[in-house]
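Lab notebook, bench 4. The sequencing result for the construct came back, and we need a structural model before the next group meeting so we can plan mutations. Quick request posted to the team channel:

Model the 3D structure of this chain.
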Amino acid sequence: MAFNSIIYALFLPVVFLLYWYVFARRLRIQNVFLLIASYVFYACWDWRFLALIIFTTLSTFFTAKLAARGQMRLWTGINIVVNLAILFVFKYFNFFAESFAQMMSAVGWEVDAVTLNVVLPVGISFYTVQALGYSIDVARGQIKPTDDIVSFATFIAFFPQLVAGPIERASSLLPQIERERRFDYAEAVLGMRQILWGVVKKVAIADVCAVYVDRIFSQPDMYAAEFGASTLVLGAVLFAFQIYGDFSGYSDIAIGSARLLGIRLRQNFRYPYFSRSVTDFWGRWHISLTSWFRDYVYIPLGGNRRGVGRTYFNIFVVFLLSGLWHGANFTFIAWGAIWGVAYVVERMIFGKVTYTDEPRLRNIMSMIGIFIVAVIGFAIFRSPSISFFGHYASLCASSSLCAIPSGLTAMAYVVPFLVVEWLGRRNTFAIERLPMPAWVRYLFYTFLLMVVLFANSKPETFIYFQF
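Done. Here's the predicted structure in C-alpha cell form:
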C-alpha cells in the first residue's frame, strides 16, 4: 500500500476514526487494532512476507527476554545472526554468489553461480535494523526488555514507518506505544500539513523529475547526440532532486501519519541540499540511518577513541556498509566509498567545519560544492553498473554543451520548491509554521493540492521500497 495511492487515502482516515473514536478507551485494544492495521498495510504488498516480519518480531522479543535472564551475549548474538542471515538470503545472496563466480572466472576458474529465485520483501532492511537496535540496546543495559508482546510487535510493524523509515529506537517509540495517548488537535493539524508537504515532494517533485530521469538514463547516448552533455548533467541533477523528494516526502508522510495517531517519529531529513560541508550533509540526510550506524557500528568499532588513523578507518567502513545496506550492487558500495573518502578528506584538511545559516557568499559556494558531490554520488547510485556510470560520465565530458537541455521543464517545479524550503529551513518541515491569516493558509493549501493534481507526472513507486 503506497502512500501516494488512493487506497492509502482511504485507509488512513478509516484507521484514524476507529483508532480515536472506537478503540481509544482501552490502551491494549487500541494497540491490538494498531497492530492489525499495520499488518493489513504490509499485507497489501505481499501477504506471504508477513511471516518474515512476525518471525523477526518473535525471535527478537523472546531472545531479549532470555538474554535479560542470563547469557546475554549468547542470546543477543543468536538473534543478530538469525536476522542478518534472513536479510542476507533475501537481499545479498545472489549478489555475492554472482560476484564470487565472476572473481573466479577472472583468475581462470569457471564456477557456476548458484542463485535464489526470491523476491526482496519490501522494507526488510528497515525493520531488521530496528529489531537489531532493540536487541543491542537490551544487551547494553540501555533499556529493559518489554513484557508486552503486542506493544513490541506494534513497535516493529508500526505502519507509517514500517517500509521506509524513519528507523526508530525502542527507547523512543516503544514507550509511546505502551502509554495512553490522547488526541491533540494541534498535533493533528501539523500532521495533516506535513502529509500535504510530503505528497507535494513525492508527486510534484520526485515523480515529475522521474519522467525525465528515466528517459535520460535509459538512452544516454541518444540524448548526448541530440541535446549534448547539458541534458545528461541535468538528468543527474534531476535525479538528486527525485531521490530527495521521494525519500524525504515519504518520511514527511510517515511522520505526519504518526502524528495523527498521537505518536512522534524522529526527523529524518533537515534540508540536506543546504549543507555547507560533508559532515553537515550527513547530519541532515537520512538522519535515522546515519545515527544508527554511528551508534551500532562506528562506536563499537572504536569510534574516535583509538587514534586518528583508526578513526578514519572506522568512518570509511561505516560509509561502505551504509552503501551496501542500500542495495546489493557495486554502485551502492561505490556511492558509500565516495562519501567516505569525501568525509575523511574533509576531516583531515579542515577538521570540524563550522558554518552559519546565513546566505553569505562563502556559505553559498560551500552549498554548491556539496551539492555537486551529492549529484555525482547519486548519479552512481542511479546507474545500473559501474561501467554504465563511467560511460555516462565520459559522455558528459566529451559531448558539446547545448543552450536548452531536454528536461528543463522539471526545473519549473524544483525552483519554487527550493524557495519554499529555503524560507522554511528553520522549521522541522518547510510549511510547519505559516504565520498568515487562515483564509490565506487555506488558499495556499488549495494551491498545493492543485499542483499535486495537475503535475505532469505518472505515479511512481517510492525508490526506497527496494531497501
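The chain has 18 helices and no strands.
Will bring this to the meeting.
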